[in-house]
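Researcher: Re-running this chain for the archive, since the previous output was lost when a drive failed. Same request as before.
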Amino acid sequence: MNLIEGRVSAVYPSSNTVKVKRDDNGTVTRELIVLIRGDNWFPTEGEYVVCVLGKGNGYVLGAI
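Model: Regenerated structure tokens:
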């Protein structure tokens, strides 16, 4: 698993996913699942987030 940081480049609220432009290499991720935190937070385009990427799915952990 890899921990990455980047800015949200696209949001998909209906599927609870976003795409993130990575800081480390400038590429855009596949759709990543936004973890439910219990406070109705959902990232917006341009928001800086931290994510975990695995072999299958990736997840947005929260804003930085």
